[in-house]
Amino acid sequence: QVQLVESGGGLVQPGGSLRLSCAASGFTFSSYAMGWYRQAPGKERELVATITNVGSSTNYADSVKGRFTISRDDAKNTVYLQMNSLKPEDTAVYYCNARRKILATVWDYWGQGTQVTVSS
């Protein structure tokens, strides 16, 4: 079955760094665009970054541009999110997403989330 397993979250001080990983299984990873989303308490889930499966084109939320980097390793079926210069407002549960769209059909998978807390 499809699994997306996030890891690497934790508690970090402002200005610190974390690297999130998402290990995928149960589907053809190289055929899917991958993304990271986050949800803070009392807020809606929002896009953080995405990376395409062809050409590895990336897209970032304005709030993380220049600080976060998304990457993928198709040989390891893993997507990463390198987070630098972390701020308290980055505190949220971070979710991994896999998405494939062919015409009107969309395949959309989510991980269980990993908590990131930025606090002194």
Characterise the protein shown here.
The chain has 120 residues and is an all-beta fold. Helix content is 0%, strand content 55%. The chain has no helices and 11 strands. The strands form 2 sheets. Strands 2, 4, 5, 6, 9, 10 and 11 form a 7-stranded mixed sheet that branches. A 4-stranded antiparallel sheet has the order 1-3-8-7, with no helix packed on it. A hairpin with a 6-residue loop joins strand 5 (46-51) and strand 6 (58-60). The N and C termini lie far apart (40 Å). The model has no long low-confidence stretch (mean pLDDT 97).
Task: Please give the number of β-strands.
Answer: 11
C-alpha-based Rg, rounded: 14 Å
End-to-end Cα distance, whole Å, is 40 Å
Largest sheet: 7 strands, mixed
Model regions low in confidence, pLDDT < 50 over at least 5 residues: none
Q: What structural category characterises the helix and strand content?
A: mainly beta
Task: Name the features.
55% strand, single chain, four-stranded antiparallel sheet, mainly beta
